[in-house]
Amino acid sequence: MSLHIVVGFGPAGAATARLLAEQGHAVRVVTRSGGAPEPGIEHVACDAADSERLTEAARGAAAIHGCAAPPYHHWASAWPPLAASLCAAAEATGAVLVMLGNLYGYGPVDGPLTEALPLAATGPKGRVRAAVWEQARQLHEQGRIRAVELRASDFFGPGVTDGGHLAARVVPRLLRGKSVSTLGDPDAPHSWTYLPDVARALVEAAGEERAWGRPWHVPTERPLSVREMVGRLAAQAGTGPVAVRRIPSAVVGVGSLFSPLLRELKEVRYQFDRPFVVDSRACEAALAFRATPVDEQVKATLDWWRERRTTVG
Q1: 19, 73 Cβ separation under 8 angstroms
Q2: What span, in angstroms and rounded, lies between the C-alpha atoms of 100 and 83?
Q3: SS3 string of 120-137?
Q4: 193 has which bridge partners?
Q5: Phi and psi at residue 306, to the nearest 5°
Q6: Whole-angstrom Cα distance, residue 224 to residue 232?
Q7: Cα 296 vs. chain centroid, distance in angstroms?
Q8: Among 57, 76, 80, 294, which one has the highest count of C-beta atoms within 10 angstroms of its own C-beta?
Q9: For residue 313, what pLDDT is reported?
């Protein structure tokens, strides 16, 4: 087994680190603050945007998994140095750079999203995410690094809390039988990427040379609207039907005056105002695994939230 570096310990980074450790790999997690060690996981305090320190932390690694993300409203200024540091560390150490990406770089499109679409986003967050991959891709094509990007839709599942559209704002209320509110059209088809499948894709791609040099969409189940997902969650939870209400645009507008997150979400509101469908068949064929069935996703998510509610009171 080999050493893997996981940069960032949010939901995706934590899931990836723990999966690697379960498989018997040595895992070193890099975050600004460090953390308490877990079985098979070492935590190192390091600013990942400092290329010299990140390179030292990554010496001897087989792969660097880039799972960190700057605060949403600092993307334009913080992503470029972080991405440059990841690439520099990969070049200096020879580790495969496995980047966790998203779908912002495509911008609004008509029809399902595939990896063949151009990165045509015009908003600042979409442009910066596109630039992050383009930098890595160019270095890969020059033979200076080995890189691959796994792109996911909105996270869903155990470990997803404040940042998830079907997480802290939805599941705790649903478990109490209360109505939930959502941004955008609650009946628009939407793709949800299951967090454990994100970790599986990152781990699989690190060791699959045929996958390197291009982006892939993480295997994702068929699209379901917010209302449909809430209905499945409520049915599994046994709470009975739960009302789903769209947050009025005027309320979102007022809220954005006080919330940096709501202000930044304006750029990507199209993902919830219209169908947002991910085609992940290419990755499913290349990595030989399919997304976890949605019923299993729902059960595991509810079990995790129930356990969390008991643990934290």
Answers
A1: no
A2: 11
A3: CCCCHHHHHHHHHHHHHH
A4: 155
A5: -65, -45
A6: 10
A7: 19
A8: 57
A9: 46
pLDDT at position 276 over 80? yes
Through-space distance between the first and last CA atoms of the chain, rounded to whole angstroms = 39
C-alpha Rg value of the chain to the nearest Å: 19
**pLDDT band, residue 256 (cuts 50/70/90):** low
Residues 108-166: tens digit of each pLDDT: 999 999 999 999 999 999 999 999 999 999 999 999 999 999 999 999 999 999 888 99
> What's the chain's length in residues?
313
Of 99, 111, 88, the C-alpha closest to 151 is 99
Could you count the other beta carbons within 10 Å of the beta carbon of residue 179? 11
Comparing CA positions, the residue from 16, 58, 56 lying closest to residue 40 is: 16
Residue with tokens 């992940």: 280
Is pLDDT of 214 > 70? Answer: yes
Instruction: Say which residues have a Cβ less than 8 Å from residue 310's Cβ, sequence separation at least 6.
Output: none
Phi, psi (degrees; rounded to nearest 5) at 186: -70, -10
Confirm whether pTM is higher than 0.70: yes
**Degrees to nearest 5, angle at CA 7 with 210 and 261:** 110
DSSP code per residue over the chain: --EEEEE--SHHHHHHHHHHHHTT-EEEEEESS----BTTEEEEE--TT-HHHHHHHTTT-SEEEE-----GGGHHHHHHHHHHHHHHHHHHH--EEEEEE-SGGG-S-SS-B-TTS-----SHHHHHHHHHHHHHHHHHHTTS--EEEEE--EEESTT--TT-TTTTTTHHHHHTT--EEESS-TTS-B-EEEHHHHHHHHHHHHT-GGGTTSEEEPP-PPP--HHHHHHHHHHHHT-----EEEPPHHHHHHHHTT-HHHHHHGGGTHHHHS-B-B--HHHHHHHT--PPPHHHHHHHHHHHHHHHHHHH-
Instruction: For helices 75-93 and 124-141, give the axis angle rounded to 10 degrees.
Output: 10
**Distance (Å, whole) CA 119 – CA 116:** 9
Question: What's the mean per-residue pLDDT of the chain?
Answer: 93
